[in-house]
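re: ur question from yesterday

yeah so i grabbed the chain u mentioned. its 748 aa long if i counted rite. heres the sequnce exactly as i have it in my notes:
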Amino acid sequence: MEQPLSRDAFVWGIASLCNLHCIPFDAELLIRRFPPAYDLGVLLSAIKSFGFKVSLQAGQIQPLHPAVFPILVLLNPPIESESSAEPKAEAREEVRAEDSASSGSTESPPEAVVGAEAEAADTNAAERIPEYGLALVVKTDGERVLLVTQDSPAPKTIPLSEFNTQFSGQIILATPQQKAVEEDIKAPAKFGFKWFIPELLKHKKIWREILLASFAIQLVALATPLGTQVIIDKVVVHHTVSTLIVIAVALGIFLIFNAAMGWVRQYLVLHTGNRIDAVLAHKVFGHLLHLPMRYFEHRPTGTLVARLQGVETIREFLAGSLVTLLLDFPFLFVFLAIMFWYSWQLTLIALATLTLITILSIAITPLLRQRLNQQFLLGARNQAFLTEYVSGMETVKSLQLEPQLQKQYGGYLSTYLAAGFQSRQLSNTYNTFANALDQLQTLSILCAGAWIVMHNPEFTIGMLVAFQMFSGRLSGPVLRLVGMYQEFQQADIAVKRLGDLMDAPTEPYSLIPSRTNTKAGNIELEGISFRYSDNHPWLYRNLNITIKPNKCTVLMGPSGCGKSTLAKLLLGFYQPQEGNIKIDGKDIRHLSANELRNYFGIVPQETMLFSGTLYDNLILANPHASFEQIVQACQLAGIHETIEKLPQAYQTEIGEHGTGLSGGQKQRLAIARALLRQPSILIFDEAVSNLDQHTAEHFAQTVNRLKGKVTILFITHQLPKGLHVDEAVLLGSGQEAGLINMEKQHVE
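ran it thru and got these C-alpha cells back, copy pasting raw so excuse formatting
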C-alpha cells in the first residue's frame, strides 16, 4: 500500500474540507462507502465523491498562490525512537500477563481468544506499516505556517523549518465544483469508445516513452535495407571483406537494439494496459452495483457477467493493437516516400495490391460483424444457462433433471460452436486471400524489378532487394490495420453490449447527509398505489399505514397480496405510482439510496451467506465493527452459544450459501448481521416460512428480545407462536390495510 493513512486521519481530513466549505458531512456514510484500508489514492477518490475538484502536487508550499489556501497536506509518519518503543513493549507484555492471569481465573470463550489474536495481529501490522498524517494549512508568510492538525483542532502557528521536517512533499488541492445545474441541463453522454479515452490520457508520460521506443525501432528499420543494399552492390562486387565486417557488426548492433526497444515498448504497453484494465473494470463493476433492482429482474446473471468481460476486449483493442499501430502509422509515409524515390512503378504495384486487400476486408466486414454478434449472444446464453442451473444444483438433483439438462446444454453448446466456427472460417477465408495477395505482391515486385534492373543500369540488384524489404515494412502495418478493423468489430460489439449496462441510470447515491439525522424509526405510508407495470394488476390502491417507532408490527395477508413488495418499497427498490412514503417525517424520494437503506436491517426469507468464516460473513455488515460488537449482536440474536460450540468458533469456515448450517442458524446469523448495521428499523421478511414449529418459536423469542430497541416490521402469512406483537396490519388484495391493536398482547 502506498502512503497508508489511519481511519481517523482519513475521516478527519475529509471532514475538515467539508466543514471549511459548509458541506454536510456524516462519518458513518463515509466509512460505509469507503471501507479500510486507507491510503492517499482512496483519500483522493473520497474527496472527489463530495463534489470537489482534486489535484495532487509535489513540492513546497511557499511558491503557491495565496488564493489556493487552505490546502490539505500529507505529513510524514511519526518516527518512534527505541527508548519510547521499549516502555510500550513492556506495557504490552504487562497487558498480556494480565490477560493470561484473568483467563486463568475466569473462563474466556475460544472465539474471544481468536478475536484478541486478530486484534493483536492488526496492531502488529499497524506498527510494521507507518501511517501518514494530514494537516490543513491555512496560510504561510514564507517564515511561519498557520495550520490545523488532527491532534490540535485549534489553529496553531509553527516555524516553516519545523513544518518542513514533518511535511512529506504531497499537497492536495481541493476546490468545490458547482455541477448540479450543468448536470440538469446537459444530457448524460452515451457510453462509447470515448468513455475510455480519459483513462488512457492519464498515462501521457508512459505513452511518450512508448513513442520514443517506436521512433527508435523505425530508425533501425531504415538502416537494415540500406545496409543490405550496400553489401550486395558494393561489398560483393568489390570483394571488400573489411567493409563487410563493419556493416555486419553495425547491423548486428542495430538488431540487438531493435529487439531491446521492441521488448521495452511491449512491456510498457502491457503494463499500462493492465493498470487501465484494473481501473476501468473497477468503474464498471461499481456502476453495476449502483444500478436499481429493476435492471436485474429481466437480465440473466450469466449475460451480465459476459458483458462485464467485454471490458478486457475493449481495453486490449484500445491500449494494445490500436496504440502500437497508431504509433507506427506515421512512419509509413516515410517508407512510402523512400519507395517512390527508388521506383515509382514498383511502388504503384505495392499500393495496388494493398488496395485489393483493403477492399476485401471492407467487403466481408458486415457479414463478419453479424456472425460475431450472433456468437456473442449464444455465448451469453450458454453462460446464463450454466450459472442458473449450477446455482440450483440441489433442485436439479432432487428432480433428476440431469439427462434433460445435459441434452439441452449439448444443443446450446453445438449451436454456439457452430456460430464460432462460421466466424473463424470467414476470418480464415479472408486471411487466405490476403496472404495470397501479399505473396502476389512479392512476386510482382520481384519480376517487375528484375525487368527494371535489366533495362535501367541505375537500378541495381541491391536496390531491388532493399525495395522489397521496404515494401514489407509498408505492407505489414497495412495488413495489421486491416486485421485491426476486424478486431474493431469485436470491440464495437462489446462496447454496445456494455453500453446497455453503463447507460442505465444508477440509484441516487450521496455521501452528503440530509439536514436531519434523527433515526427514531417511524414509518408513514400515505395513499400508496403500486403495480409492477401497466400490464399487471394493482397490488395497492390508496394504502395508508403508520408504523410506530420501537414497536413490533406484524404485516399479514394471503400469498400474493404484496407483503414482501411493501418491504421493497420501503427500501427504495421500487417506486409507487401514487402516494408518499416517509421515514421519520422525511419523504424517501428526497433521500439517497445509501442514506435510506442506512435506516434498515433486513432478515430475508432466504439468507445469503458467502464462502469464508462466520466472522467474515458478519463483518460484511459493518467493516468497522469491533469483535465485542459482533459478539454482542450474536448474543442478541441467540446464536453466540451455538458459535462457541463450533471447532473454531467465529473463525469456522462455512461453504457457499452457508453449507453445513441449519435454517434456524442461518436466520439468527442474518439477525446478527442486520443488528451490526445498527438500524433503527428491522424487517423480517417471511423469516419463519422455512422453519419448523420448534425453531420458529425459538426464533420468536429472539425477536422478542429486540423489542423496544428498534422498530420491528414482521412480514409473514402465519405468525409464530410466542411472538409478542404491538400491532398487526392485515393486507388484502388491492385494498386498504386493516389495523388490529394488540397492545400488551402476544400471539398464542
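noticed a couple things. The CA atoms of residues 10 and 43 lie 7 Å apart. also Residues 402-455 form the longest helix (54 residues).
anyway ttyl
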